[in-house]
Amino acid sequence: METLKVSANSVPKSVAGAIAAVVRNNEPVEIITIGAAAVNQAVKSIAIARGYVAPNGIDLICVPAFSQLEIEGNSKTSIKFLIEKR
User: Fold this and answer.
1) Are strands 60-71 and 2-6 parallel, antiparallel or unpaired?
2) Which domain holds residue 11?
3) Would you place residue 72 in the very low, low, confident or very high pLDDT band (cuts 50, 70, 90)?
4) Closest to 3 in 3D by CA, of 28, 26, 29
């Protein structure tokens, strides 16, 4: 499984291209975000990626979940998205 970290400064079209490339190879993608702005960029990226793969007959599903990350000794709550073919 490919893991992508999306931040508030991530470019949605670039992230969407990475998602589409991995999904076309029949692999799931996990996106990890911390913060509202990062979640916003991730959701935009997923929507764009869906448009990229739709002409190939691929429909994406997205399952959001909370997760805990250790960053510099501190526990942070993140939102992760699991994306795969339907």
Assistant:
1) unpaired
2) 2-85
3) confident
4) 29
Mean pLDDT of the chain: 93
The count of structural domains within the chain is 1
The Cα 6–Cα 39 span in angstroms is: 8
Query: φ, ψ for residue 25 (rounded to 5)?
Result: -90, 20
**pTM for the whole thing?**
0.90
Q: Report pLDDT digits (tens) over 35-59.
A: 999 999 999 999 999 999 999 899 9
CA–CA dist 1, 30 (Å, integer):
7
Question: For residue 69, what is the domain's CATH number?
Answer: 3.30.110.20
- Separation in Å, CA 35 to CA 41, 49, 76: 10, 21, 10
